[in-house]
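Possible race condition, two jobs.
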Amino acid sequence: MAHPNPEPLQIAVEDPVPELQFRTIHGYRRAFRIAGSGPVVLLIHGVGDNSMSWEPVHAQLARRFTVIAPDLLGHGKSDKPRADYSVAAYANGMRDLLSVLGIDRVTVVGHSLGGGVAMQFAYQFPQMVDRLMLVGAGGVTKDVNIALRFASLPVGGEALALLRLPLVLPVLQSLGRLMGPVLGSTGIGRDIPNLLRILAELPEPTASRAFTRTLRAVVDWRGQVVTMLDRCYLAEPIPVQLVWGEKDPVIPVDHAHMVHAAMPGSRLEIFPGSAHFPHHDDPARFIDLLEGFIDSTAPAEHDQETLRELLRKGSTAHAIESSDEMEARILVLGALESDERSAT
């Protein structure tokens, strides 16, 4: 049932408090927030964001699980070197952090860019994945918000540098707060607080450079460069939950239906009225959904022979034959024919 006016999630006194910790891996400091005990849930944030993106749900999830929310390299309190910020490199970084922490298997939850990283992680390290939840995930097909396309251009990088000028950021923040009530419950209106939160991190030079490098690894002026549709069929042995905001202005909700069609056996939950941050718009519902997903599914069992047969049999085009969503099937097949896809 929809929650049209969700109440702010009340954090009980006994909820574990996520602790900010650091580990140095390959010479770079990686920040992460961790709380709780039990089966491990890995929360991966989106581009320009950080582990605080999960603050509305982290503590309550930690009542039942060990919940780890890293700051991706180049984000938050992690180091921001001149480095490889590709989706594949981020997946490697998740593997390395978990290995350092002595963790072998996780339920992976990825939001936006983090959804693409989560999918890449499952592709590269299937033996480490119990389940997969994709939240407004990037990397489905090339379609993406025009603002991100602009930001990937050279002029976009120069525009970010303007944030370092006196008064520019405060003026933008004031405009955003004024526009919030005007835009109301539209997708952009709902997302303004989170966009302002992310924008506040970008004036710092190393942060803006890392943001630009990360964005250009996955987006150019024509849209998303790295897409997952051509290998969605490989997720067949993994329990998959898809979560999308009905009014997502960044990654259109059509992408949710496409991924659902391309992943037979996946579950799909659309949050009515929600935008690009459903875990902020309705955290209580998000927590219930994630807990229910974990409780009702068995961890994936990685089998190399099964993977070998899937690769031999392959493709997503064959996998979607069982989908009931005819329109989504047509969209998937069209994207497979027209999109330029990563060969990672």
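Job #2 (started ~2 s after job #1):
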Amino acid sequence: MNSTQPTILIPGGINPRVRSRVEAEFDAIAIETADPALLDAGTRAKVTGIASATIIDAGFIDAFPNLAIIANFGVGYDVVDARHAASRGVMVTNTPDVLSDEVADTTVGLLLNTLRELPKAEAYVRAGRWAAEGPYPLTSLTLRGRTVGIFGLGRIGLAIARRLEAFGLPIHYHTRNKRNDVDFTWHDTLGGLAKAVDTLVVVVPGGAATEKAVNADILDALGAQGVLISVGRGSTLDEDALIVALRERRIAAAGLDVFAHEPNVPQALMDLPNACLLPHVASASVSTRNAMADLVVDNLAAWLDGRPALTPVPECAGLDRKPG
């Protein structure tokens, strides 16, 4: 602890590199959960920065009268009330770019695993079934000949698109506005995208605007040979509708890295043979998580030193300097 440095609060769990750097470079305070009642008024008044990977709502923000910045660990920041923070002059940052390639790589791997059943094939070998029963059954699905739709063509979505484009696949996408820097086919509705493709990759952020956007109608539009890949936020998918669609073979398969109530995954999903499931690991390599951690702390250091934040979220882009 260094009392001459700004005071940074860490509410709840966070990447160990964030914690170690904050403790080395700032006056650090850690609490078990994001509950301001765990701190007295004097301590709350000292806090000028928050490093977090948990829900930071308006009430929590308002509990810290001298708060200047909330540095969120992760590119998705729907857990932070950024609009309220901006109204108070509080900067909010996230960790884009440094994880885009890792997530895109994992997305392609998840798609291949879902189509070609590679995890099941490895389990078949390890169980001795190849020797005992013969070759693994031919897979009914393949990447060949597919048309890919990407729901959300931001940094990560574009990285995914470029990789799948290299596989020789046509790329379609849906975003609120058409991009002028790509030649992919744009659809002005998600339903229109789903009807045009047989492989849908969902990589939009969470929040009210995307809550259960991928519902029964979208899955039906995707069709019986359709494959869904979800790597953004679990809230964007109607899990009950997906379970029905998979069970009734209204779509062929799904690969999921994110879920609505993590780490709890519906048993009905785990029981389905045409679902490939990962425990939210798209960016979970040591090097990528270290880069994310460094960006969290570097944002804190820059803003509290009076310099521009490195990666402000859009709601806070107009806040050029530390308030006051």
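The radius of gyration is 22 Å.
Logs attached separately.
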